[in-house]
Amino acid sequence: FHSGEREEKCIIEDVPTDTLVIANYKVQRWDIHKQDYLESAPGLGMFVTVTTPSAEVLLSKLYGPQGTFSFTSNLSGEHIICLQSNSTRFVAFAGSKLRIHLDIRVGEHFLDESVVQAKDKVNEVNFRLEHLIEQIHHISKEQNYEREREEKFRKTSEETNSNILWWAIVQTLILVSIGIWQMKSLRDFFISKKLV
């Protein structure tokens, strides 16, 4: 995505409880002379802030122009990941455009192929098996989290339906009572005017 030099950009990531989130990023600065983005942005860093669904700051740190940051969620829900450049230029002069490449991996642990190649076949199979078991645990956590969200949504829907039913009953009773009162008032009016 693109950003201004001092502009803060935020991304919302829905994460289950106790899940590792790893993010790689790279910042490129616009070069006016070349009319293209430079491969790197020397002297420019990124200030990363991660906020939990309960508005608690989980991570707040300054990084370089490219790097990796990670955190483990302690609550399930929408975590807000904000990135802002640490430009020292005044806001009025900080008009340079930035291109930020961001790769967020939630709950995944990728295999390090150099480690796998160094081990013999038995250790390789064992390592891959542990990796698969870890992925199964992550999928299980993700399913439990989705199940909890679905249950909360269903409960809210049932409460809303119940409230609508009672509101319809109350409206009907009010309309019937107003109708009876109007008929009684009209009858009394006609009797008092001796029209009946």
How would you describe what is shown here?
This protein has 196 residues and is α+β, with helices and mostly antiparallel strands. The chain folds into 2 domains: 2-108, Jelly Rolls (Sandwich); 130-163. It is built from 2 helices and 9 strands. The strands form 2 sheets. Strands 1, 3, 4, 7 and 9 form a 5-stranded antiparallel β-sheet that branches. The N and C termini lie far apart (81 Å).
Query: What does the largest sheet look like?
Result: 5 strands, antiparallel
Query: Percent range for helical residues?
Result: 25-40%
Q: Quickly count the helices.
A: 2
Shape: elongated
Strand-pairing-aware structural class: alpha+beta
Beta percentage is 25-35%
User: Could you tell me the number of beta strands?
Assistant: 9
Number of domains: 2
For the terminal residues, how far apart are their CA atoms? 81 Å
CATH architecture of the largest domain: Sandwich
CATH homolog superfamily of the largest domain: GOLD domain
Kindly identify the CATH topology of the largest domain.
Jelly Rolls
Radius of gyration: 31 Å
Q: What would the average pLDDT be, to the nearest integer?
A: 82
CATH class of the largest domain: Mainly Beta
Order of helices and strands: EEEEEEEEEHH
Model regions low in confidence, pLDDT < 50 over at least 5 residues:
90-94
Keywords: Endoplasmic reticulum, Membrane, Signal, Transmembrane, Transmembrane helix
InterPro entries: Emp24-like, GOLD_dom
Transmembrane segments: 164-183
Membrane topology: Single-pass type I membrane protein
